[in-house]
Design a protein that fits this description.
This protein is an alpha/beta fold. The chain has helices spanning 42-49, 119-141, 159-170, 185-191, 223-232, 255-259, 274-287, 290-296, 305-313; strands spanning 2-9, 15-22, 31-39, 65-73, 83-87, 102-105, 110-112, 150-153, 174-179, 193-198, 216-219, 238-241, 263-266, 297-301, 320-324. Strand 14 (297-301), helix 9 and strand 15 form a beta-alpha-beta unit. It is globular and about 65 Å long.
Length: 325
């Protein structure tokens, strides 16, 4: 039997296309699934456009996220027909992913779909939104609370930024959105941002210590943006770092940490333990406004994956992309 999948080839030259794949080629695991929806994250964009060394084995089916139903299970905790969410775990990098009608996954990778969401809405959240929730949980655990001052979110029109703004504003935080797309101010304010500022304020090297501005921060940019944020945090304030859209370099001094007690929190979503994932998705089901989520989503077909992956890497996408498989 065969199924439709989006496949990446390295030799004789890079190729990304929809193919019919023999089901017997899928890896042996304890769970088989029917994928109803996937999505495009930054890492998927890198792989599909061949812009970064994401793929470790070839050929590869990309798609680090998937949602749908269990078609076969040899694990007692999962039954046929149950709805699942998958995020990360190296899928789409070292193991065939979810931009396909079928996938074989491991039971310990899966989270049950919260009753608050449909599979499509879960992919509207995807790894980007789940990462945003991990960031919110991290700054909360580090002491951030509403009423302490403004919380800044960089990369605000992207998937992580959009969901982070919606979550934080719903929890009562005063949110400042940082973006290079000032034309999207109305979109960001509709998600809950109290004001919007241009990312140009952050992208160049700044002083080791700057005026205290922020009660907490969620950063998707890295590089000079993250350096400047650390230099601008209030005493003891947390910064959750989860991305490198500007760059992987970080030229910091110890000054913000030893003179102001700033907390720099690294957020990993790919290999996060299952218990943390389950908590994050429970919180998303409780704290994310569905109306705001729907405002972020753009639905595309399987045939549009390459086009939208290219647009994503060019910074031309706002919000979240959902792929109907």
């Amino acid at each position: 039997m065969t199924f439709k999948a989006f496949v990446l080839h390295k030799e004789p030259q890079f190729l990304a296309q929809i193919e019919e794949v023999v089901e017997a080629r899928l890896p042996v695991t304890d769970i088989a699934v029917e994928v109803q929806y996937s999505t495009l994250n930054f890492k998927d964009g890198l792989a599909i456009t061949n812009k970064g060394p994401v793929v470790r084995q070839w050929p590869m089916i990309p798609g680090i996220d998937g949602a749908g139903s269990i078609s076969h299970s040899s694990h007692p905790d999962w039954k046929m027909g149950e709805l699942f969410i998958h995020n990360g775990w190296g899928v789409g990098e070292t193991q065939w992913g979810c931009l396909a009608q079928k996938a074989h996954l491991k039971s310990e990778w899966l989270v049950r779909l919260p009753s608050a969401f449909t599979p499509r809405q879960a992919m509207g959240i995807g790894t980007a939104g789940y990462t945003a929730m991990l960031c919110v949980m991290a700054i909360e655990n580090a002491g951030a609370a509403p009423g302490q001052g403004e919380v800044v979110v960089t990369g605000a029109t992207g998937g992580v930024g959009s969901v982070a703004i919606a979550l934080l504003s719903g929890l009562g935080f005063e949110v400042v959105a940082v973006t290079g797309k000032m034309t999207e101010e109305s979109y960001l304010k509709a998600l809950g941002a109290s004001r919007v500022i241009d990312r140009q304020e952050f992208v160049a090297a700044g002083k080791p210590l700057q005026k205290e501005r922020w009660a907490a921060a969620i950063d998707t940019a890295g590089s000079h943006t993250l350096t400047n944020l650390c230099a601008q945090m209030q005493y003891g304030a947390p910064v959750a770092a989860c991305g490198l859209a500007q760059g992987a370099n970080l030229s910091l001094t110890v000054m913000p940490f030893i003179l102001r007690g700033v907390q720099l929190l690294g957020i990993d979503s790919v290999m996060a333990p299952l218990v943390k994932r389950q908590l994050a998705w429970e919180r998303l089901g409780r704290d994310l406004d569905i109306t705001k989520l729907e405002a972020m989503i753009e639905d595309i077909t399987f045939d549009q994956v390459t086009e939208y992956a290219t647009a994503l890497m060019a910074g031309q996408v706002t919000g979240r992309i959902v792929v109907k498989i």
